[in-house]
Amino acid sequence: MPRLTADTPYMHPDCEIKDATFGAYTEVGRGSRIAHSQFGDYSYCDRYADIANTTVGKFANIAAYVRIGATDHPMEKASLHHFHYRAGDYFDDATDDDAWFAHRRGRRVTLGHDTWLGNGAQVRPEVTIGHGAVVAGGAIVTKDVAPYMIVAGIPAVPLRARFSPSIADRMMALAWWDWSHDALHRALGDFRSLSAEAFLERYE
């Protein structure tokens, strides 16, 4: 793994980036596509992720082959095919349907802080994944996921909470993801060794 920096995101080979911004210590895996999205500090995606129209919080862990914000086809129209909204690719005197593309970009996904999306998971447009939530590999998320909830399946359903409601609320109030880089460094040993409850007792 490369040494990450605060100044420049690490882009592996063959990435496609369009209208996207990246915070400190971020990384984009080989062959990934990121469009119309923002990555918070310390977040990364592994190889061949496809992420569109998404606000990614800090410390997000996005595995390989994850798809977030997959764009839809116009099911209410006479044809699903993109010849009519990408018309400039097909007809000399036609233009693309800018209103349709603006509509798709507006259907955003919000991915909370310290989340984990497993290999091959998909998140549909207009879904919010809460802080600390886990999406199992291969799941397709069609509805919002509560903070610190683990979901799996097609469509994804809750399996269990990572923590009790009181621990989850305290963790969100602590908001360690907003700490400075130096503060994270000082707490590194405790991140490694303490349970969530013990960590809260030390830092609240």
UniProtKB/TrEMBL annotation:
Keyword annotations of the record: Transferase
Annotated SUPFAM superfamilies: Trimeric LpxA-like enzymes
Pfam (any one): Hexapep
Keyword Transmembrane helix: no
Protein name: Chloramphenicol acetyltransferase
Keyword presence, Transferase: yes
Taxonomic path: unclassified sequences, metagenomes, ecological metagenomes
Molecular function terms, GO-annotated: transferase activity
InterPro entries (alphabetical): Hexapep, Hexapep_transf_CS, Phosphonate_tfrase_rpt, Trans_hexapeptide_repeat, Trimer_LpxA-like_sf
Matching PANTHER family: ACETYLTRANSFERASE, ACETYLTRANSFERASE RV3034C-RELATED
